[in-house]
Write a structure and sequence with these properties.
Layout: H1 6-21, H2 27-32, E1 40-41, E2 47-51, H3 56-61, H4 68-79, E3 88-91, H5 105-122, E4 126-130, H6 132-138, H7 144-147, E5 152-158, E6 161-170, H8 173-178, H9 180-190, H10 193-203
Helix pairs in contact: 1-5
Length: 204
Amino acid sequence: MTTLTRDEKQSKLAQIARSVASCEVCSELCKAATNPVPGEGDPEAKIMFVGEAPGAQEDQQGRPFVGASGKFLAEMLDSIGLSRDDVFITNIVKYRPPANRDPSREEIRDCLPYLLEQIAVIDPKLIVFLGRHAMNVFLPELKISACHGQAVKQSYTHAGVRREQVFLPLYHPAAALYNGSMRATLLEDFASIPKVLESISKES
């Protein structure tokens, strides 16, 4: 695999963002939304956070996880010595579904190539799923109540290339907003991220 420079990665991610904004796929979602939310962060991030779809505030600002869930995500990042600038944050679906409904299987299918392209460019060591909906796109057989906070190694094929990837499913930060006990669980699971990264580095 050819290693891209930081500038090359930034350029390719910008190209993906332009493709998202062009409404070539997810056209119905695009028409209903205010702004595309392609994702943002370090093009050389070791950690990529993937949620399900943008919400109302994300739709307004065109940025992922900027509402109440985003504030808690920033707090959790800070708890392990990181900030948003150190990671890459995005969603499976790049436009807000109307009324914050769950995206359909067809919408996930149509938007998924963008995410796979972003993963291929960034080449993160670890992909952290925020919530069961994001997790089930890649790991449909798992239940988040049983596997949250546990790293899973899985292979998949994109553009003819077989890729080994480590995933870490976590509850969605929004869960902590409605259930206080989830807050401690999320913080505890988040604390495992540095150890998971260290383990990945030893294997590579």
